[in-house]
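Lecture notes, part 5. Sequence design as translation. It can be helpful to think of inverse folding as translation between two languages: the language of shapes and the language of residues. The source text, in structure tokens, appears below.
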């Protein structure tokens, strides 16, 4: 039996499992345990490794078994669990996308509001040629993991005659991106608010994404020249983003909730 924790951030849900229990079966465990109908169900698994000297490191595996550099929401879920189980109000979590420092702002039972340092986003305008679609203008944004962001004006976030889900799948899996990419569709609501939808690499449409929130906000700030403090609205809820300058560290504040703990049969 494998002990696990389940948590979510704006509906983007994760299992948290100690690395020592994975026994190098990360991909297989992710595919099995993240299944919605036959197992616990989640968008991915955060494997928590406790290294010598107290360093904490996360490896994120998506529901399809692929490994990603990091998840902003997943990292926040782990920070919430460490606050709940070990009283850590501030924690630095290593990831393949860099160290992310998280601090508890508010706590109410299993619910936490956490501010995270998300590194310095890099935004580069790019137009891609997509077979059957044509030229798609957007921006490549790196926030420790890759994103392609499209600015849209449609209320349903559709673009190029396709739903955001269909176009997101085509872009995410395009050979133009050797390792795939996350895709966001962003609509500017005002100088201090955006709404967006996410097609997540290795998972598909999700209700929220921490790195997707950061990528969407960074693209809107740079391309549309809106405010540097934003509310970013996804299907699962809103998060707050502060990015004072292009070369500054971005700060993301959002909720995380511990859902349950339990045990599940392994492989």
């Amino acid at each position: 039996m494998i002990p696990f924790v389940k948590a979510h951030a704006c509906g983007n849900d994760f299992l948290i499992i100690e690395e020592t229990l994975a026994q190098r079966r990360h991909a297989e465990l992710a595919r099995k345990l993240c299944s919605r109908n036959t197992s616990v169900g989640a968008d991915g698994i955060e494997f928590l490794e406790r290294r010598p000297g107290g360093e904490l490191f996360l490896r994120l595996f998506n529901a399809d078994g692929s490994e990603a550099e990091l998840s902003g929401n997943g990292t926040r879920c782990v920070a919430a669990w460490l606050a709940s189980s070990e009283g850590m109000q501030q924690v630095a979590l290593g990831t393949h996308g860099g160290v992310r420092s998280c601090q508890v702002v508010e706590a109410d039972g299993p619910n936490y509001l956490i501010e995270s340092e998300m590194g310095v986003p890099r935004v580069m305008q790019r137009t891609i040629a997509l077979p059957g679609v044509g030229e798609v203008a957007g921006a490549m944004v790196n926030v420790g993991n890759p994103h392609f962001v499209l600015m849209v004006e449609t209320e349903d976030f559709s673009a190029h005659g396709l739903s955001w889900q269909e176009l997101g799948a085509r872009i995410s899996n395009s050979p133009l991106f050797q390792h795939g990419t996350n895709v966001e569709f962003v609509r500017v609501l005002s100088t201090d608010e955006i709404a967006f939808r996410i097609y997540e690499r290795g998972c598909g449409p999700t209700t929220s994404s921490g790195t997707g929130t950061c990528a969407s906000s960074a693209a809107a700030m740079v391309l549309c020249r809106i405010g540097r403090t934003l509310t970013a609205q996804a299907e699962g809820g809103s998060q707050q983003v502060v990015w004072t300058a292009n070369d500054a560290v971005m700060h993301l504040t959002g909720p995380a909730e511990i859902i349950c703990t339990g045990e599940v049969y392994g492989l």
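The translated text above is only one of many valid answers, since several sequences can fold into similar shapes. The first helix runs from residue 26 to 33.
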